[in-house]
Amino acid sequence: MKKELWALFMGNFKKAIYSVLMILYSFILFNKSAAAESINTSKQDTTVSSKLRISILTCDAGEDIYTVWGHTAVRVVDSINNTDYVFNFGTFDFNTPNFVAKFMKGDLQYFISATTYTNFLYEYEYTKRDVHEQALKLTNSEKEKWYQALQTNMVGNNRFYLYNFIKDNCTTRIKDGLFKHAPINNYSIEIHSYREEVVSGCYKAGLGWVGLGIDLLLGAVSDSTPNLYQEAFLPKLLFQKIALNPKLVLSTNHINYNHKEASRGGSPINYLIVFLLLYIFVSKWNSLLTQRIARILDVTLLFLLGIGGSLVLYMSQFSLHDACQENYNLIWLHPFYLLAIPIYFISKKWTGYLGYIFFTATVIMMFASYWIPQHISKSVIVIMIIALFLQTRLIKRGTLAKYK
């Protein structure tokens, strides 16, 4: 009996030991399999990430107004999926209803688009605008996260944003991604104001009159100095910012299309001075022909200053372009010049009164320009002098009426 019990006990004990060993063996095999799978997955992710290559593309200025500051885009090469895409935040639709009105007001929607690198270069080859590529040295994780963020931006309403030409544009969107996903040292590129960079871009592109118009429309807000994060708000500025980080740049490639420099022509200030001298000459020459020409110039200037003043009023008070806010040019450049046109023909007396009001406002602006926080360029000063001469003629027209 004892022998049978002992044999039964040993049999059960061996089965228990065997079961425990099998459980332990299965557990070890499972852990090894999980670890191997984890390693393989990690290796696979690393392989995928290491096949991404991200570059910043900086494109030179073109001849059209909307291209005078150049362009910025992001190139992503994925050798695993054999793709080479360029992401562009500067896309807009000319067929948008009320396109000009929306652009002036500042509620025109821009959106991100993507195209192949080959197709992207076609446009710049056709317009002979050089393209400069800065390949970035990023970790696998940084490249993967930025690429995923770009893809997310392509989905639904994520694509659209309200364009702001100094704070939210095709360059600042990419700059924001760069600062978020790359270890960039924020060295200063030492720019003085938004106005200086925006206006100078027009002059460099040979569009001096456009630069002068923008100079008149920009308010005191644009004369602030951007901080280290804000200053790379235009394509060339972001290119310089990245170039200050040699550890971030793997390589720089310049694609040249034999771009010819734009014809600079004469500076607007030269033409304005010539016009002022001609205006004074015909006004002082006491002949029937010159006096008629002078009166035609009077009315033409009232019209141009009135239209210019209306634009300044709208952009500074009603548009969403914050760079045009706090525009002190409204003191002397306003829509009331348009009111003076019919009065010029109806009442010489009231023409003189308006002349006094306009003259006083312009003189106050010229004296106060030293203290106000808004830069007044030399070209704008010449326009103010032309306005002063016009206003003296209005005063003289009212004075002569008193003695008749």
Blueprint (SSEs and pairs):
Blueprint: H1 2-50, E1 52-59, E2 71-78, E3 83-91, H2 99-105, E4 109-116, H3 117-126, E5 131-136, H4 140-153, E6 160-162, H5 170-181, H6 194-204, H7 208-217, H8 235-243, E7 249-255, H9 268-284, H10 288-317, H11 336-346, H12 348-368, H13 378-402
Antiparallel strand pairs: 1-2, 1-5, 2-3, 3-4, 4-6, 5-7
Helix pairs in contact: 4-5, 6-7, 9-10, 9-13, 10-11, 10-13, 11-12, 12-13
Folded structure, characterized:
- The protein is α+β, with helices and mostly antiparallel strands and 404 residues long.
- It folds into three domains: 1-40; 50-191 and 226-255, no CATH class; 268-402, no CATH class.
- The protein contains 13 helices and seven strands.
- The protein has helices at 2-50, 99-105, 117-126, 140-153, 170-181, 194-204, 208-217, 235-243, 268-284, 288-317, 336-346, 348-368, 378-402, and strands spanning 52-59, 71-78, 83-91, 109-116, 131-136, 160-162, 249-255.
- A seven-stranded antiparallel beta sheet has the order 6-4-3-2-1-5-7.
- Helix 10 crosses helix 13 (378-402).
- It is elongated.
- The termini are far apart.
- The model is unreliable at 1-49 (pLDDT under 50).
**Unreliable parts:** 1-49
Radius of gyration: 34 Å
Helix amount, in percent?
55-70%
Subunit organisation of the chains: single chain
Shape: elongated
- Number of helices, counting only DSSP H or I runs of 4 residues or more: 13
Mean pLDDT: 85
| Structural domains: how many | 3
Please indicate the percent range of residues in DSSP E strands (runs of 2 or more). Answer: 5-15%
N- and C-termini, Cα separation:
152 Å
Structural class: alpha+beta
* Count of extended strands: 7
Order of helices and strands: HEEEHEHEHEHHHHEHHHHH
Spatial order of strands in the largest sheet: 6-4-3-2-1-5-7
